[in-house]
Structure formats: C-alpha cells, structure tokens
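lol ok so funny story. i was supposed to be doing the assay writeup but got distracted and ended up predicting the structure for this chain instead. priorities right. anyway since i did it might as well share w the group, maybe its usefull for someone
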Amino acid sequence: MKIGKILVTGGAGFIGSHLVDALMGRGYFVRVVDNLSDGSLENIRQWLNDGHFEFIEGDLKDAAVASKSVNGTVLVFHLAANPDVRLGETAPSKHFDENLLVTFNVLEAMRKSETAKRIVFASTSTVYGEADVFPTSEDYGPLLPISVYGAAKLGCEGLVSSYCHTFGLSGVLLRFANVVGSRAKHGVIVDFVGKLRQNPEELEILGDGKQKKSYLHVKDLISAFFAVLPCLERVGGVDAFNVGSLDWVDVRRIAEIVCEEMRVEPKFRFNNALGDGRGWRGDVKVMRLSVDKLMSLGWKPTLNSEEAIRLGCREILQMFKGKLRD
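and the output, tada:
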C-alpha cells in the first residue's frame, strides 16, 4: 500500500517512539504530536533534525491541536492515551479526558480532513474484562471491562468503529497484551526494578503472585502495526486484531526473572490487600489472547512471554544505568 505523510499521536512515548523509529527507518514522512506528559523528547531526538520528520508539541484535548496534527496526513496511528491503568482507581476523569476525549478530537479532525481516512488504534486486552475462554479471540463477548482504563479504551473502539462506518474511514483496532521493552515507564518490570534498587533484600509483590498473563516485547508489537496495513485498503469498515505472545507467565515468575537479571535474592512479600489475589481494583488476574487472526496475515511473535520479560528487564536495567550488582 502506498502511504503519504503519517501521523503518530503519542509518538514520543514508549510504544509510539518505537513505531516512529520503524517508520523512519522505512523512509516514510512522519509527524508526531505529543504533549510530553508521559513521553520524552529523548525518545525521538535522533529524528528532530530529519527532513522527513515533524514534531508538534501539543495536547490533543484541544481540538485545534488535533486539527493541525491531522491536516495533510493520510494515515493516523493513534497511540496518544494515558497508559497508567491503575490511575483509574484514583482519577477516573484522566482516562475519560486523555483517552475518550482525545480520540473523539482525532476522529473529528479526520472526518473534516480531505486526506486522513485511515486509522490504526492502539487498544488493549483489558476491553475483554475477565474472560472465561482462553485464549480469548476477537469475537469474544460481551465485552465487560473491570477497569476504567479498559472501559475508556472500549469506548474509543466504539468511536473508531462508528466513524469508520458513518464517515467512510478505514480502521484497525489492535488489542495489545502487556507490552514490555526499552523506554517503558510503567508496568510490572519497572515496578520491580525500582523496588529492588531501593531495597534488594525484599520485594513487595502486589496480589498473590498467581496473576497469569501474556507478555509481548515491543519489537514484536511494532511488526504487527505493519502486518495490518493491507486491511486499511477497504473503505468504511473496521477490524480488530489481538496482539500477544502464544503463552503466558505468572507474576511470581516475572519477579524471579527480574531478580535473576539483577543478581539479587530478596525475600518475596505478597501484598494481597484485596483478598482476591489481584494487585489492585481493576486488575485482570488471567489473560491470554488468541492471535490466530493476526498470524493469518503472516505475523508471528519472535519471543514467548518469559523471553520478552527477560529482554525487557535487561533493557530497563540499561535505562537505570546498569545492574544493581556487577
């Protein structure tokens, strides 16, 4: 598929910046819009003086910023969102504003644009809520999220779908498993590394440690973005694809891998404050996605969950400037 100027919303963030690297490496003209609330200029600094790159520092909650960002593009990778799942417990309005409102503004700008008619939306496995079928396929339902984050993402999916069918846009929804890798600022690996750097003798693990989920390295996720591009050739439709590994791993094993990589042997302390094994309200205890649909397009993860965790941990440790011990 021939592609003109591409917009990556949230392109200075963890996943967005990796997507930008891949797009720039393939010779595309890329525009990034990011308010830098969670992203960082360091993630995209290598491209700032490139003639095929454009950066807009702005907040997509402002419709004028959305319009300026979308103008002249032909494809939107919409990754701008508040990525902190646990924030929904204390500040649910953040997920409304930074997920639903932002997505609405982007879609409105696309509706008014003469060129921007294709969108790939970064969604999440949490839209499935507590599924009772594993691996969970895209046609599972009803979708009943248990977190405000998952609800906001599901609402965004509904907006994307409605705009595609009503206004002739073409869309793809990518429902991610837990993504790990360099530049990550949230998640279980970052949490564990941070705690162990403060106290290598003890590691607090939220929940009972039996939470079991699929983990995906960011490099495998980025390849999925390119695998679905042919699906955007149709007009006025939307499709959903799960993106995950072919297995799963529990939180206790993740803790063990992080400790192995940091060369520490702490005592594990399980904080099962909620009494039901989950780490926080809204935490999905068990998740594994079916990725058969995406694999039918030729995509396949190169790493399993444990391998993704181990590589992601090494990359996070580099971010923290080396191992705790030599």
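Residues 6-179+216-243 form a domain with the Rossmann fold fold (CATH 3.40.50.720). The first strand starts at residue 6 and ends at 9.
back to the writeup now i swear
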